[in-house]
Structures are given as structure tokens and as C-alpha cells.
Write a structure and sequence with these properties.
- The structure is a single chain.
- The protein has about 230 residues and is α+β, with helices and mostly antiparallel strands.
- The protein folds into two domains: about 130 residues, no CATH class; about 70 residues, no CATH class.
- Helix content is about 15%, strand content about 35%.
- The chain has three helices and 15 strands.
- The protein has a six-stranded antiparallel sheet with strand order 6-7-15-12-11-8, with no helix packed on it. Strands 1-2-3-4-5 form a five-stranded antiparallel sheet.
- Strand 6 and strand 7 form a beta hairpin.
- Helix 2 runs antiparallel to helix 3.
- The two termini are about 35 Å apart.
Length: about 230
């Protein structure tokens, strides 16, 4: 098996990635950069344009991790999208970076979820699983214990939540796209549901459910520069 090596900034050296995997990652990045669900900032326009005095702008990317989702087996990658700007001939350049977890949904549409540089860099620098590290950050816990539906996840609990107010309704919609139905829903700053069932209203993600008391997690999204936009779930 070919050994993966990292560069000076903890990025994976492209030539150390097996050719077949490089092709998969390249196709994912191409799809993400032109995703139909990219938000209002527009697509990722990779490339460079400089004048004869060296002034201009470039946008490129590097890979920091790749692998398969531990639940679905779908291929995922973590990339850094980097913007380099030189406004004047003798000025120091401006360099800005955003990191994304990228992959494909169940309907084969691509997603790009912004994740924090600190989490990516720490995992890469210490030989950790970068994919799992960012998934743990997104959902604020041990991703291995969760049942996921897009940007939402269910965490089964061993006992009912304490000091949580019972809501009058047994169903609600989160993120304008995930409908929760349950025997009982409680709130104490966190959201809990007994015997929850989640339906993705647009239908991109499959129906999921769980038995007993569960915590419902809305995945976090890191801040990102507007030159590299995430997709919308």
C-alpha cells in the first residue's frame, strides 16, 4: 500500500495519493466547485490571473484528509480552498483559507460543509483521522454513536433528559427542511425527543428513526471566506 505523506503545511502530498483516489477527489472538487446548491456567493473559480507586474489573484486547493463515512461507507474528503491576492507590485500578498468536508448525498448531489482550520490542522498534525475529527466537531460529540440525516443527527441516550421542558407539539421542523415527529419533545437549551422520526422534506436524505430518548443535534458550520462558499443542505 502506498504511504501517504504530508507537506510543510500538513497537506497531503498529491503524488502520494493512489491514482484512483486522486481521480475520485478531483471529481468531487470539480462537482463541489460548480454545485447547483452553492449559496449566494457563487461557485469556486479555481485558477490564477496576474498582470505583467505580478498583480492579481489565484484560487487553488489542497487535500487534508480522505476516507469513507463510518456509517454509510460513502467517500469523503477534507480540502483547503486558498485565495492568494497581490494588489500592488511590492505589497505583501493577502492569503485567506477556508476548509470544507466534501462528499455526495444519497441522491448523488455534492455537498461542501465548512469546518474549522484548527480541527483539521490538529488532526493532520497528530496523525488522527481527519474525516472523523471534523464530523465529531460538526455534531459536537462522538459521531460513531450517531444516526445522521444530512446536517442533523440523532444521539440515543441511556436515560431521559433532566430539567427539560415538555413542548406542547409532538412535531417540528428544523433548518426549514428536517421534520421531526416523536412521542414527546423536550427542550432545555438542547433538543430531545422520545422515539423520534426524522423526514427530510426535500427528500435528499432517507428517513431515519430511533427508539427511546434521543438528543437531536443540528450540525455546526464553521465561518468561511466568501470567495469559497459552502453548499446548502
Amino acid at each position: 500500500m502506498k504511504t501517504i505523506t504530508r507537506g510543510n503545511y500538513n497537506e497531503i502530498v498529491w503524488s502520494s495519493i493512489p491514482p484512483r483516489t486522486r481521480k475520485i477527489i478531483q471529481n468531487l472538487v470539480n462537482a463541489a466547485s460548480n454545485a447547483a446548491k452553492i449559496d449566494e456567493h457563487g461557485s469556486w473559480d479555481f485558477g490564477a490571473e496576474f498582470d505583467n507586474k505580478g498583480r492579481g489573484i489565484s484560487l487553488n486547493w489542497d487535500v487534508y484528509g480522505y476516507g469513507k463515512d463510518i456509517h454509510t461507507g460513502r467517500f469523503l474528503a477534507v480540502i483547503q480552498v486558498r485565495q492568494f491576492v497581490r494588489a500592488r507590485k511590492n505589497y505583501y500578498p493577502s492569503i485567506r483559507k477556508s476548509y470544507f468536508l466534501i462528499g455526495r448525498n444519497e441522491d448523488n448531489s455534492v455537498f461542501a460543509h465548512p469546518v474549522p482550520a484548527r480541527t483539521v490542522q490538529y488532526a493532520a498534525r497528530n496523525g488522527r483521522n481527519v474525516i472523523l475529527a471534523v464530523q465529531n466537531w460538526i455534531f459536537g460529540g462522538d459521531y460513531r454513536r450517531m444516526i445522521r440525516q444530512g446536517d442533523l443527527a440523532i444521539i440515543p441516550l441511556s436515560r431521559p433528559p433532566r430539567q427539560a421542558e415538555k413542548l406542547p407539539a409532538n412535531e417540528m421542523v428544523l433548518e426549514d427542511s428536517h421534520k421531526i415527529q416523536a412521542d414527546e419533545i423536550r427542550l432545555n437549551g438542547n433538543l430531545y425527543a422520545r422515539n423520534p422520526s426524522l423526514t427530510h422534506i426535500p427528500g435528499t436524505h432517507p428517513h431515519i428513526s430511533a427508539t427511546g430518548w434521543c438528543k437531536i443535534i443540528v450540525g455546526k458550520r464553521s465561518r468561511f471566506w466568501d470567495f469559497a462558499a459552502p453548499t446548502i443542505d
